[in-house]
Amino acid sequence: LIPLLADPDDQVRGNTCTTLGKLGPSAAPAVPILIKKLNEKSEYVPGFAISALGEIGPGAKEAVPALIPFLHSKDPYVRMDAAGALCGIGKGSIAALPDLIKAIHDEESEVRDGAFLALRQIGLDAKSAIPDLIQCLKSPDYDTAWHAAFALEAIDPKQCQGAIPIFTDTLWDPNSEKMAIEALQKTGTSEGLEAIRSYQESKYKGEVLATMKHDISFDEQVKVLSAIGVARQIRNMANHFIVKITNGMPAKEAVKKLNANPSVKSAAPNLYVVKDYYSDMHYLVPPKRGVKSSP
User: Fold this and answer.
1) In the structure, what pLDDT confidence band is assigned to residue 172 with cuts at 50, 70 and 90?
2) Would you give the DSSP letter of residue 282?
3) What pLDDT, on a 0 to 100 scale, did the predictor assign at position 53?
4) Is the pLDDT reported for residue 274 higher than 50?
5) In 3-state terms, what secondary structure has residue 21?
6) How far apart are CA 141 and CA 106, in angstroms?
7) Residues with Cβ < 8 Å from 135, sequence gap 6 or more?
8) Which three-class secondary structure state does DSSP give residue 275?
9) Degrees, nearest 5: CA angle 24-27-33
10) At what angle do helices 142-155 and 177-187 cross, to 10 degrees?
11) Which pLDDT belongs to residue 119?
């Protein structure tokens, strides 16, 4: 494959880069030539070479100095690919640390996300990023704050006091539950441990709630919700029992009734409706930080 990187056809060289990337670490012998391809005056090849180096992983460490300038490209897609490549290289990307710290403030979310992930991979050696990560926890963009929280956890969990609310919210994502529990445990704080305890108790109550019979009226169900202290479940586990809460009631009407109930409103204010276009289901959810709710 390596000889094909010298083919006169741009498309052949680009496809060869892609194939080498798919080979992963075993393509490490091609790294020196891929580095040269970064500087080609071609519309396609440099981008494919960037991605290939990231897919090769730690074995592409020597490419880091050549990748750094691409974090400052005017093209956001190039910056995104460069951040992703440095993430793939992992701890070996330490030389790019100052540039990655700048990249977590990039105007493009995909670039920021890639830089956060790269910092997570570098881990303990990225401590100089801590002040910027703490600053990003306050971002009105929830995804930015989320990525900052977990990057901070990978670097120094003891600095995660401000990230506890984000870890707590993440508990309710089935795909990230384990990760969030581990992050809260690593903070070593009573607040983190209490968040886990409260979540596990509420999750159990939510599972009980999901067994409620359809013949219980909507108002009666709201009373039960309030009585057993799981109003938070209306926000965070609504997708598990939306049909039982509304009992066939249109979602928008259910939101109005839920928000009109004082005990529910105090714990779960400003519910709004979102539609899952894949399942055609309507869910009741709280507004994310920085997102205007639309009842």
Assistant:
1) confident
2) E
3) 96
4) no
5) helix
6) 13
7) none
8) strand
9) 130
10) 60
11) 96
* Per-residue pLDDT at 281: 46
User: What is the C-alpha to C-alpha distance for residues 170 and 174, in angstroms, rounded to an integer?
Assistant: 9
Whose tokens are 């990307």? That residue is 93
Structure tokens belonging to residue 278: 């894949």
Residue written as token pair 């956001």: 76
Q: Quick one: which of 112, 114, 136, 115 has its CA closest to 126?
A: 115
**Would you say 206 and 233 are in contact if contact means Cβ atoms under 8 Å apart?**
yes
Amino acid at 52: A
Q: Report the 10 Å Cβ neighbour count for 138.
A: 11
Checking phi first, is residue 106 left (phi over 0); if not, alpha (psi -120 to 50) or beta? beta
Query: DSSP assignment, residue 277?
Result: T
- 254 Cβ neighbours under 8 A, 6+ residues apart: 218, 245, 246, 284
Number of H helices, E strands in the chain: 17, 2
What does the alpha-carbon distance between residue 295 and residue 290 come to, in Å, rounded to a whole number? Answer: 16
Of 5-9, 50-54, 176-180, the range with the highest mean pLDDT is 50-54
Tokens of 84: 């992703």
Contacts of 187 (CB under 8 A, 6+ apart): 153, 157, 158, 160, 161, 163, 164, 167
Q: What is the mean pLDDT of residues 13-24?
A: 93
Cα gap 264→230, rounded to integer Å: 9
Contact predicate 43/77, CB 8 Å: no
Q: What is the pLDDT of residues 54-89, one digit of tens each?
A: 999 999 999 999 999 999 999 999 999 999 999 999
Beta strand 281-285 pairing with 272-276: antiparallel
Can you give the C-alpha Rg of the chain in angstroms? 24
